[in-house]
């Protein structure tokens, strides 16, 4: 059979490629030992399974379940998206600079200066409390060159938002944010040639990458002020509930609640980001994968809570409307998952920018609505920058 998708994130499996022709029983054993419970096959390139559902059938069933699950929780925002964007832009820049400095210091053998990190986590938390969509939306845009640094900031922001949506207290949320910002500290010891390698990793390079949780834990322990929660998140954000993760192969509830939440956030941000070896996928596709993997790898309750936290169409997502217009999502609807508020800005029929306007897709014709999302669209495909239109005042 021809493996089309191993149904797990790339840091979980030992193969140099995601797609390949199965040639031996040894390869099947490797798949099973990696904790992979199901795969997608390409019947056009290899043998078929008579009773297996098609990709379309499986996707339709998952889509139906997602829509049922992910009716978003009502998130109270203190200020509008437009008002928060300028402050969120500054927080993003300062936080990214801090992570870059932390990584450089670690490579020089210096301990992490927790005071500066504490202030940055507080800034991120306050932005999330004012309007979570602004900072989280801005952090969706990463280049492969700054991925390592922005990923840490994004995991921090998403984990704070996740804690907030689950009603976790402020002190614990702050500690989780610290863990999110510092979770990949151990990658400072991984050579850039491996960290940013554009092609598949060799088994030796894969082993080297898998050392980063333990390395990060050891580095953070050198700063006595770092608490138990950040240490736990740094060490265990790659553990999986079926015991297939690393470094300690913990299973089930032996993995702490916050480490399980961090694992979901870490994979979600990695899947949706462009990297040197991987093109980011749309948020809905990433949530679909996390939902499917939650049967074995993640806590299903936490996975569903995260879907409600970010929504199928998070702020900053570019979508195609039934009218043929492109739009960027600016606000989730409190009860209708598929009908967020969007800013339309481009006509795919005339292939030109149009006068931007805000459309509430939950409203009917004559009330500012009468359109609906038909799918995600790639900004690169249309050569547009949807982030310019998050706030119409700045467009």
Automatic annotation (TrEMBL):
It comes from the Bacteria. Pfam families: DUF3391, HD_5. SUPFAM superfamilies: HD-domain/PDEase-like. Residues 126-322 form the HD-GYP domain. InterPro entries: DUF3391 (IPR021812), HD/PDEase_dom (IPR003607), HD_GYP_dom (IPR037522). Coiled coil: none annotated. This is HD-GYP domain-containing protein. It comes from Janthinobacterium kumbetense.
């Amino acid at each position: 059979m021809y493996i089309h998708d191993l149904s797990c994130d790339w840091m979980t499996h030992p193969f140099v490629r995601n797609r390949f022709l199965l040639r031996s029983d040894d390869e099947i054993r490797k798949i099973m030992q990696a904790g992979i419970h199901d795969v997608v096959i390409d019947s056009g390139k290899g043998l078929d399974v008579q009773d297996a559902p098609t990709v379309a059938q499986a996707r339709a069933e998952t889509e139906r379940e997602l829509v049922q699950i992910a009716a978003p929780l009502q998130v109270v925002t203190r200020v509008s998206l437009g008002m928060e964007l300028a402050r969120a832009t500054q927080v993003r820049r300062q936080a990214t600079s801090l992570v870059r400095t932390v990584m450089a210091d670690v490579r020089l053998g210096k301990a992490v200066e927790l005071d500066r990190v504490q202030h940055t986590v507080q800034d991120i938390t306050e932005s999330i409390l004012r309007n979570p969509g602004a900072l989280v939306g801005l952090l969706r845009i990463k280049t492969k060159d700054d991925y390592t640094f922005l990923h840490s900031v994004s995991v921090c922001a998403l984990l704070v938002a996740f804690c907030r949506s689950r009603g976790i207290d402020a002190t614990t949320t702050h500690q989780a944010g610290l863990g999110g910002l510092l979770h990949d500290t151990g990658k400072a010891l991984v050579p850039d040639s491996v960290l940013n390698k554009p092609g598949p990793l060799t088994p030796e390079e894969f082993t080297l990458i898998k050392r980063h949780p333990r390395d990060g834990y050891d580095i953070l322990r050198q700063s006595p002020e770092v608490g138990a929660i950040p240490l736990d998140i740094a060490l265990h954000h790659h553990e999986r509930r079926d015991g297939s993760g690393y470094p300690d192969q913990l299973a089930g509830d032996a993995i702490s609640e916050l480490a399980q939440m961090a694992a979901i956030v870490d994979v979600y941000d990695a899947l949706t980001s462009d990297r040197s070896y991987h093109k980011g996928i749309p948020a809905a596709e990433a949530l679909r994968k996390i939902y499917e993997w939650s049967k074995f790898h993640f806590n299903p309750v936490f996975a569903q809570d995260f879907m409600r936290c970010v929504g199928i169409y998070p702020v900053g997502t570019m979508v195609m409307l039934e009218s043929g217009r492109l739009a960027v999502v600016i606000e989730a609807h409190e009860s209708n998952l598929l009908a967020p508020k969007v800013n339309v800005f481009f006509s795919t029929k005339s292939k030109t920018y149009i006068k931007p306007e805000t459309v509430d897709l939950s409203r009917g014709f004559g009330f500012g609505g009468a359109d609906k999302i038909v799918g995600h669209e790639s900004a690169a495909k249309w050569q547009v920058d949807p982030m310019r239109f998050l706030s119409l005042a700045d467009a």
